[in-house]
Design goal:
The complex is a heterodimer of chains A (79) and B (229). Chain A is 30% helix and 28% strand. Chain A has 79 residues and is α+β, with helices and mostly antiparallel strands. Chain A has one domain: Phosphoribosylformylglycinamidine synthase subunit PurS (Mth169, Chain: A, 2-Layer Sandwich), CATH 3.30.1280. In chain A, strands 2-1-3 form a 3-stranded antiparallel β-sheet, covered by helices on one side. Chain A starts with a strand and ends with a strand. Chain B has helices at residues 14-25, 67-77, 87-94, 151-159, 218-227, and strands at residues 3-7, 30-33, 44-47, 81-85, 101-103, 111-119, 135-142, 146-148, 163-168, 187-191, 197-200. In chain B, a hairpin with a 5-residue loop joins strand 10 and strand 11 (197-200). Classes of the chains: A alpha+beta (79), B alpha/beta (229). At the A-B interface, helix 1 and helix 2 of A face loops of B.
Chain lengths: 79, 229
Amino acid sequence: MKAKVHVTLKNGVLDPQGKAVEHALGTLGFAGVGEVRIGKYIELELTDAAEKSKENIENMCKQLLANTVIENFDVEIVE
Amino acid sequence: MKAAVIVFPGSNCDRDMMVGIEHSLGRKPEMVWHKETELPDVDFIAVPGGFSYGDYLRCGAMSAHSPIMREVVKKANQGVRVLGVCNGFQILTEAGLLPGVLMRNAKLRFICKDVHLKVENAETEFTNKYSAGQAIRVPVAHHDGNFFADDETLAALEGNGQVAFRYCDAAGNVTDEANINGSRNNIAGILNEKKNVLGMMPHPERLCDTQLGGTDGKPMFDALVEALS
């Protein structure tokens, strides 16, 4: 089983990388792109059934995978 | 003063820090590898700059959970003075000893040059050999030095005198142009509430010797030696 974790910047936190990509897409001629925000995708393979609890994975996110000062995280468990 | 410098895999300012401390102290600090689980009996700990753990995940995120950091956090909470420079500052925020976070520089570029800093709080054991409002010249070398904290945290930092240094011009004016990396309120260095932990992006340890072009970093180490002897 796997957990899929998306780490994204909170609203209101500036994302200069996203801005640069947004600008580059415009330069390439893609006219209809609004704000671009860049995040991380982390895939965890869970070998111990006990680890798959959502609470456990959320603790992993809070302690290491995300910095909750600026980032939100979203956990999806895939059987 | 009994001093230690923490060394992580990927630290690259640990020797500069050692020499900077030695200039003021007259002897070498202890160098402590990050895998150690105990610190020697010290009253000053320096967390140096570099690219610990290759900046994996986020700058300082892995190092903040190194075995030795548990001890550093414990000592800091007991009042031991802790200085984090550059990557060391990032590590201290990730370890929860300082508020906020250091994000990618606003213009996305690595910045390596001398900058000016306005001494905002000159009443701490780190800064009392400077005068309040003084502009000092110190080098920076970082990609992720853009200090961010939410409005509430920022107001607390400002209200408690926890802002130690701000980016300024040569005359000491805190301007948008002088804000090299997009930090909120031009913040270059902050203290914890008890003022025994200082984190800063610029490198005072790199400017402690006239042969290196200046000595504006030396008063910080002189002040610590005086306070702790």
